[in-house]
Amino acid sequence: MSGTALTLALSKGRIFDETLPLLKAAGIEVLEDPEKSRKLILATNRPEVRVVLVRASDVPTYVQYGGADLGITGKDILLEHGSQGLYLPLDLRIAKCRVSVAVRADFDYASAVRQGSRLRVATKYVAIAREFFAAKGVHVDLIKLYGSMELAPLTGLADAIVDLVSTGNTLKANHLVEVERIMDISSHLVVNQAALKLKQAALRPIIDAFAAAVKQD
Ligand code: PRP
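A: This is the predicted complex of the input protein with PRP.
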């Protein structure tokens, strides 16, 4: 190995795909396609840099405890996890979407809110949802789910969901409508705070190359 070893935590899918051009701008090319193998550690063209594939919600944990020196993760995940132990130098403006409230097309959300009804809200994003409804003064019972939130209003489990919306196709396919946009989401670079000091020389050029490659709109 030459240089300081660096481990980058990424999740498969959109974040991985949209990170590749940023890595390329930093002179890093991932040598394997995560969709074609079950490998969890991927080599790059730089012998000292490797990529580890983790669940999106585990990226902050890996970086916080030093299992990875840096990682890329959505603002949604960071808000739920908290950013203790993490240095957040950059909004990479990739994997853009939003967190929204959605209900069944036949549910009168505006009236329910106006009348001060207690809403049952199913979500994976409990912290974001709690803060949003508290700020609006809406009383909610939050039901924590781990996926397929769209099913909750369809089965009577909840009146509303708080979930990520990108194209809106998933909501449409399940006859749900977006009634409030809570916040816009994009992915951020996160760096382990100790690594930032100890591996400064290796990390700084990568952070700078990412910063220069971030798309402005
Ligand atoms: C997200 C979200 C929605 C879907 C929205 O799920 O939970 O189900 O994307 O995208 P759309 O508006 O373009 O249809 P994701 O695929 O990220 O996986 P998840 O269910 O693990 O969150």
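The chain has two domains: 2-95+186-216, 97-184. The beta strands are 6-10, 41-43, 49-53, 70-74, 86-104, 119-123, 140-144, 160-165, 176-192.
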